[in-house]
Write a structure and sequence with these properties.
Elements lengths: L8 H5 L2 H12 L21 E6 L6 E5 L5 H4 L2 E7 L14 H9 L7 E6 L4 E5 L5 H8 L6 E3 L5 H4 L12 E6 L10 H8 L6 E6 L5 E3 L2 E7 L8 E6 L6 E4 L9 H7 L4 E5 L14 E4 L5 E4 L3 E2 L1 H10 L5 E4 L21 E3 L1
Parallel strand pairs: 5-6, 6-7, 7-8, 12-13, 13-17
Antiparallel strand pairs: 1-2, 3-4, 3-18, 4-5, 9-10, 10-11, 11-12, 14-15, 15-16
The protein binds zinc ion (3 copies).
Length: about 350
């Protein structure tokens, strides 16, 4: 299904420094206001705020997406890239490399990984991974708090933000795979349960990989990928009504099993782990692997895809559109902000 994208075509042609400005202006309605002085959202749905219910503790109004009556006919999957960086993010704390310097100068950033997926049809939203930057991301991008979350694996940059659920949610379903990880003797679901057992609002939902689960009105399927030493999962998220499909590689080498590739195939939007460009493999103690016909490594070390590997996987999967995520500050400055590397705050409507 062909989606349309709120990262407007113009931003794809813009100099990098303009991208952030455009993203911010588009979310603010580019300065246009309605009769009551509120900003008009250019997409006509989704970014307003209405009072609906109370915050469980402070009694203040919860922030919710505004329904303006056009929701049913325009219902869509709205994808916001909250965090597009690797485990240290860009800029990296304490780093004065050229790439981090450029990011600071241009006000560009890649915080730790997280993706917000709003179902405008059901008025629910799903969070993919709980970034340690959770609080900052939700304040910055002004998206609705999620009704459910999925945890792809137990690394810090994907899980440790779950502690932010404390006193923020009255209930949050957290979906995670139910398969035992030989490296830990526990499934991801069990690790999440034991690590966050103090969070009464959180209910962990052990989830069968390679089987579709209904979450927030979407059909969500966890697929095993390759991220040693731990199990890790990519995701396919489909709207059963519109056919819109978002696929995420998860943290993975290029060696994604065929059964997982079948589930991820033919997405409208593919978010692919591309931690570094392939030419940096010479600096990894284990080098690169999974070389293509051109001899270029598609895996950096053992855990992540190179930029070239991510693009090759996107091609294998016949992705309509691809954004490269989980991007490290190790990209040289002249490559770090080139297309199709994603930046925080990008928004797509499928
Ligand atoms: Zn740096
Ligand atoms: Zn990881
Ligand atoms: Zn990661």
């Amino acid at each position: 299904m062909m989606g349309h994208y709120t990262i407007r075509a113009a931003t794809q042609r813009c100099p990098d420094w303009l991208l952030r400005v455009l993203l911010r202006d588009s979310r603010a309605g580019a300065g246009r206001t309605d009769a009551s002085g509120r900003p008009i959202d250019l997409e006509s749905v989704g970014s307003g705020v209405a009072v609906d219910g109370e915050h469980p503790l402070c009694g203040g109004p919860k922030r919710e997406p505004m329904s303006d009556g056009s929701r049913a006919e325009n219902a869509a999957m709205r994808v916001t890239l909250l965090g597009t960086g690797d485990t240290t993010g860009t800029p990296t704390v304490g780093c004065d490399c050229e790439t981090c310097g450029l990011a600071r100068d241009r006000d560009l950033e890649r915080t730790r990984f997280s993706v917000h997926v709003e179902n405008e049809r059901t008025d629910e939203s799903l969070l993919i991974d709980c970034s340690p930057d959770f609080r900052y991301q939700f304040l910055r991008d002004d998206v609705s708090l999620p009704d459910a979350a999925v945890i792809t694996h137990i690394h810090f940059d994907h899980l440790d933000g779950l502690g932010n659920a404390f006193r923020i949610f009255d209930s949050l379903d957290v979906y995670a795979a139910n398969e035992t990880d030989p490296a830990t003797g526990e499934s991801v679901a069990e690790t999440v349960s034991s690590k966050y057992d103090y969070l009464e609002a959180v209910t962990v939902r052990p989830t069968e990989p390679l089987a579709s689960t209904a979450i927030c009105g979407f059909d969500v399927t966890l697929v095993p990928v390759d991220h040693p030493p731990f199990v890790c999962y990519g995701l396919a998220i489909e709207d059963p009504f519109s056919g819109a499909k978002l696929s995420l590689s998860g943290d993975t080498s290029y060696d994604v099993p065929d059964s997982s590739r079948e589930v991820l195939a033919d997405p409208d939007l593919f978010l692919a782990d591309a931690i570094v460009p392939a030419h940096l493999c010479e600096y990894h103690p284990l080098g690169g692997r999974h070389e293509g016909d051109d001899g270029v490594p598609r895996t950096f070390g053992t855990k992540h895809m190179t930029r070239e590997g991510a693009l090759a996987l996107a091609d294998d999967l016949n992705a309509e559109r691809t954004r490269l995520v989980h991007v490290a500050h190790f990209y040289p400055a002249d490559e770090a902000f080139e297309e199709p590397l994603a930046l925080d705050g990008e928004e797509y409507v499928l």
